[in-house]
Every structure is written in structure tokens, then in C-alpha cells.
């Protein structure tokens, strides 16, 4: 199999969510001398971007996104340590968690996969994350972005509680706050004072890149 054939096959198998084939092709590509960055940026990321585009067009639905995301996550398990060794550029660091009172994590996990695939380092705090734990994580990891996820309307008020906790700790100006989840809207994100909102995982990556670019452009030299 030529280089181009392998990358095309890896793209196609990621698109259809064929996890075993994605793992096999990733290993084969590395054995053939393809660098981890080549596999990531010339096959895996473009494929997941196409998944996001199809989702936005209504050609793919959440199950297809999850399957493709899981297939890519398997490849990332192999590539992540290799990418660290090569010193591959990272766009930024994201601390992510489902808010206190909420145990749903499918959407959060998909967003994490998309972020990692796009070149972010992700620190996942899990579910039922208290404001204090978010504050501690921001202090420890100094991320570019902190993401709050909520699936239940009853837990959405925790967005504001988390932002208030960051403000009280003197950290609010040091980090970009993004929110999301099934019941969340742009209007609600604006009300609680978040910097960004995205309706799905693919849009979250686009928004995160935009917010980081904007902040770095405004940062004093």
C-alpha cells in the first residue's frame, strides 16, 4: 500500500467509525515510516472535520459522530505519546468537566476527542465537578480554556456558580470560559457570562480556536 493509499484508507475508515481498521492502519503507517503528525494531520483530523461537516448538513447524526470519534480516540492512544516525543505544536490546553449535579458525559467525551484531534491538550475532570474543583484545576494547569458541560436544565445554573467561583479566586480574566450541552443556548451562555458556546463538538473546536486567536492577538507583547 502506498503512502497516499494508506492515508486515504485511514481517512475513510475513520469516517465510517471502523475502530479496528483505524488502529491497524495507524500501526501500519507508523511501521511504514509515516510520522504521527502525518497520520494525524493528513488523515485523522481531516476525516473528523468531514464528520463534523456532515453532522452540520444533517447527513450524519450523533451516533455516527460518536462512532467516528471513538475510532479516532483509539488511534490517538497510540499517537499521543509519539506526538509528545516529537514536540508537536499544541494549540492550547483545555480543562473540561460536567458540572456538579450532572453525570452525563457522552457529549463531553466527544468534545474532548475532537479537541485532542485538533491539537489541544485536554484535562478531563469527569462528571459532578464542583466549582472548587474547577478552580483548583485552573490554578494547577493554567489552561487557555475551561469548559463546562451540562445535559440537564436543572444543572445549567452551575455555569454561573462556576464563573462566580473563578471570579472570587481572581482567575476569571486568566481563562476563556466555554459552555455547552443539549439544553444550552447562545442566549443562556450570554446571560451567565461565558466567553463562548457551541452547539456541537465540531463547532466547539472552531469556536475555541477563534477565541484563543482573539485573546492572543489582544495580549500585550
From TrEMBL:
Pfam families: B12-binding, B12-binding_2. Residues 91-221 form the B12-binding domain. One of its GO terms (biological process) is tetrahydrofolate metabolic process. Residues 1-91 form the B12-binding N-terminal domain. InterPro entries: Cbl-bd_cap, Cobalamin-bd, Cobalamin-bd_sf, Met_Synthase/Corrinoid, Meth_synthase_dom. SMART domains: B12-binding_2. One of its GO terms (molecular function) is cobalamin binding. One of its GO terms (cellular component) is cytosol. Keywords: Cobalt, Metal-binding. Coiled coil: none annotated. Transmembrane segments: none annotated. It comes from the Bacteria. Belongs to the methylamine corrinoid protein family. This is Cobalamin-binding protein. It comes from Trebonia kvetii.
Amino acid at each position: 500500500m502506498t503512502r497516499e493509499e494508506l492515508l486515504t484508507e485511514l481517512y475513510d475508515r475513520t469516517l465510517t467509525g471502523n475502530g479496528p481498521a483505524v488502529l491497524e492502519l495507524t500501526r501500519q503507517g507508523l511501521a511504514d515510516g509515516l510520522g504521527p503528525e502525518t497520520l494525524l494531520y493528513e488523515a485523522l483530523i481531516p476525516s473528523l472535520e468531514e464528520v463534523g461537516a456532515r453532522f452540520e448538513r444533517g447527513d450524519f447524526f450523533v451516533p455516527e459522530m460518536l462512532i467516528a470519534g471513538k475510532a479516532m480516540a483509539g488511534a490517538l492512544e497510540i499517537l499521543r505519546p509519539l506526538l509528545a516525543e516529537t514536540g508537536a505544536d499544541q494549540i492550547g490546553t483545555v480543562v473540561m468537566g460536567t458540572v456538579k449535579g450532572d453525570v452525563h458525559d457522552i457529549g463531553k467525551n466527544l468534545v474532548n476527542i475532537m479537541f485532542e484531534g485538533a491539537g489541544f491538550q485536554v484535562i478531563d475532570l469527569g462528571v459532578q465537578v464542583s466549582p472548587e474543583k474547577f478552580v483548583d484545576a485552573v490554578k494547577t494547569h493554567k489552561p487557555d480554556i475551561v469548559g463546562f458541560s451540562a445535559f440537564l436544565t436543572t444543572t445549567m445554573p452551575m455555569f454561573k456558580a462556576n464563573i462566580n467561583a473563578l471570579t472570587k479566586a481572581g482567575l476569571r480574566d486568566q481563562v476563556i470560559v466555554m459552555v455547552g450541552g443539549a439544553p444550552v443556548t447562545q442566549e443562556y451562555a450570554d446571560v451567565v457570562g461565558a466567553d463562548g458556546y457551541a452547539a456541537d463538538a465540531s463547532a466547539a473546536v472552531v469556536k475555541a480556536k477563534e477565541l484563543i486567536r482573539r485573546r492572543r492577538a489582544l495580549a500585550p507583547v
